[in-house]
Structure formats: structure tokens, C-alpha cells
Amino acid sequence: MDPASQDINLNSPNKGLVVDQSDSLSDVPVEGAVGNSANPLPPGLTEEEAEELRTELTKVEEEINTLRQVLSAKERHATDLKRKLGLSPLNELRQNLTKSWQDVQTSNAYLSASATLDDITHSEAYKKTQETLSQAGQKTSAALTTVGTAITRRLGDMSSNYSIRHSISMPAMRNSATFKSFEDKMGNLKIDVTPQV
Question: Which pLDDT score, from 0 to 100, does residue 61 have?
Fold first, then answer.
């Protein structure tokens, strides 16, 4: 029995049996092949020229495969050298990010934006706004501290002078000195924080 004529497909029900080779694909024209009946030669190209082109194409494809193998070997060698030098992919990433950040910092767009921000921070409008916000923050902080102290003191006074039921009732609270003092402080706070024009 000829081994070439045996079915070697392990999933085939004909496994190990002789297969009829009469329907072999060797007679089927290859798509894209030059000079076959399905794809005739381009006009002005002889059979000899087509054969030369096929030979040249084969050589070029072999060179491409050789270059791929050489490139792969060079990449493996470079990886081994990097490993021996202690250069990990993480270190390379860090170096790339550092270099990219340095490139950004020296770019015209970054330098222009940085100069514009410097101009803004040194402008009179920025300084006035910064001073106003700083003063408003200081006054607000002082007023809230005063209000907090007054509330704490008054609540302490109320707990010693009034019963809980009495201090919770609204009319009693509105008439209390603590509530009136709180209203005065909040009114003063509004006046202190509101900018005068």
C-alpha cells in the first residue's frame, strides 16, 4: 500500500484506507498564477518574461523571509543584552516617559503657555483678585470663629438658665439674646464679605 495514497486525517472515517487520487487538486489552476487559462498573461508580456518575473518574485520573497529571520534574531539578541544590563521594560517605559516630558517642556506650545501664565500671575488684576479673596477668606474665618464662640457660650448660658423644652421653642429662641446676637453677627459678616464698590 502506497503511504501517499492513505488518508491520514485522524478524524476521517476512512482513516488508514486508500484514497482515490483521481480528484486531486493538482489539475486545478492556481488563482493569480501567471499564464494559466483563468488569468492570461498581460498584453505585451511573453511567457519567458513572465517566467523571469516569477523567478525574481521568488528570490525577493526568500530575501524577505531571510531578513525577517535576521531581524528576529537581532531583536532576541537586543533583549538578552538589555536583560544582562538590567534594563527592564519598566525602566525603558520610565525613560521614555521622562524623555517625552522633557520634550513637552521644551516645546513651543508649552513654553508659550508657561509664559502666558507667568504674565497672568504678575498682572495687576490677578494680584487684586488674589488680595480680595485672601481678605474675604480671613474675614470669613474670623467671623465664623466669633459666631462659633458666641453660639457655644450662649448655648452654655441657655442650658444653665432654661429648660430644654423652653430653649427649643421658636418664640423663646427668637427672643433670646443668643439668637439676636447671632442675627447681628451674620448681618455683620454679610457686610464684611460683600465687596464695597
Answer: 96
